[in-house]
């Protein structure tokens, strides 16, 4: 059975150099808006992670997740993504267990291997070891969230008699997601039984994941498929789009720099990938685009930018209110009618 469609907000906590908001202002606005999203019935809040960016790109999601957990009641809290090789998995397991307790079982965790050489060099982690560190890290997280002490002997980690406390509220720990921009990443997500955060061409990511899940005897329709794509409601696109276009160009500029520095080839500029460009339109236009996007690519979870860099928090607050009242009810109804993907 296809899981219910979920829609949420994403935060990277960046600010423009000449903008009126300080970093303190950005964090405060983020917490307030996440609390608003919770009251409006949004399903989740996601954080992204990168390091050493002078625009304030969020380097540590855990403190912000804790602040939001304390201000909300039902919204789920996750990442897209946490850079798993840059954490010791035991420390991360402890932090997520505490957050799961604080939120009363509302944590999830989206993880990725990372790809920016400067980040790995700064943390003293060899970039060449990221695959094994990621895979061993997943195993250790799950062992740490299980019952009783455990031992682990791998290529990167050797642990004896570890028994993490407190345990998470959720049995087995927060649900895991793996980000994939290649077939190898998609097959890794299937092998570890996680949900998928796909980027790139469906034939190279989504289809191999579905095939591998089915080959393991599970139903790929029961998994979740999540992506960041921003939606903005406007009755006057000519008036509002230039502000969002400027913010989106600023937001995406750093990824171009990251991709230029990585040894990986993700086909970043090649056509045919799952669209992630921002969409602005009337409520009806947003409904049509969201329904078409979710059904075409099998997406169950979408996170829209909650506070793009340089955009007025009040304008964004009004935007998520309009999404909640004028867009999402119809999207959920139509997806439910189409096959159980609504809520």
Provide keyphrases for this structure:
343 residues; alpha/beta; TIM Barrel; five-stranded parallel sheet; four-stranded parallel sheet; 10 helices; globular
What report would you give on this structure?
The protein has one domain (6-339): Luciferase-like domain (TIM Barrel). Strands 3-2-1-13-10 form a 5-stranded parallel sheet, with helices on one face. A 4-stranded parallel sheet has the order 4-5-8-9, with helices on one face. With 343 residues, the protein is an alpha/beta fold. The model has no long low-confidence stretch (mean pLDDT 95). It is globular. Helix 2 runs parallel beside helix 3. The protein has 10 helices and 13 strands.
Short description:
This protein is an alpha/beta fold. Helices cover 44% and strands 15% of the residues.
What topology emerges from the helices and strands here?
Layout: E1 6-11, H1 23-40, E2 44-47, H2 61-71, E3 76-79, E4 82-83, H3 89-102, E5 109-112, H4 117-122, H5 130-144, E6 150-153, E7 158-162, E8 176-180, H6 183-191, E9 195-198, H7 206-215, E10 226-228, E11 231-233, H8 237-261, E12 279-281, H9 283-297, E13 301-305, H10 313-339
Parallel strand pairs: 1-2, 1-13, 2-3, 4-5, 5-8, 8-9, 10-13, 11-12
Antiparallel strand pairs: 6-7
Helix pairs in contact: 1-2, 1-10, 2-3, 3-5, 6-7, 9-10
